[in-house]
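Nicotinamide riboside transporter PnuC structure dump, as promised
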Amino acid sequence: MNAIEWLLHAHVTIGGSELRVREIVGNVFGLASALLGMRRLVSAWPVGIIGNVLLFTVFVGGIFGTPEDKDLWGQAGRQVFFFVLSVYGWYQWYQTRHHGAAVAVRPRWATGRERLELLGIGVALYAIGFFVLRALGSWGPQWDAWILTGSILATYGMARGYVEFWLIWIAVDLVGVPLLIQAEFYPSAAMYVIYGLFCVVGFASWWKIQNRERVTPPEAVVVG
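structure tokens r here:
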């Protein structure tokens, strides 16, 4: 069995429950991406992409010959959007550093117009996502659509440097934890709890940074 086949099929038993190794590893990459993002390091994006690829295989396992009891197409779909938006964010942050900025992104509050745009996009994405996910037979399409929509908006907000993106993630986690527990994706549910706590810290950190950098130039940081 090669490494890819092993990763697709390997399980570990914890507390009497079998957990997918790729689900655990994918979430570890996701958490690492969030930590790097809080420090505003460019490497947050490629690290996150690796996690996206692994988690995509978890939520639509049947495609990879590893059928699951419940396919969460919204969870899988958000990994695809993450991948696309991560390429965009990677490019944005890299270009900022490449042009001599001390940091990859400078946190700021979204303007009133930008918030309205996010709200309008969010409503449209949720409506489309709900009907598409229900048609695909996704488990819990109304909640799955909420998570998909919020995840897209949060990732876009991170790429743009909006402080509010942390709050969007918290809203996603509040729905994601109970959904994933009911669907028995326990490693992902546990990671959502950790993400939620981390997002509170990240929000406070970026809020302080944007207050500080409004009056003083940002200090140089190591490029990730």
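DSSP finds eight helices and two strands in the chain.
lmk if u need the other ones
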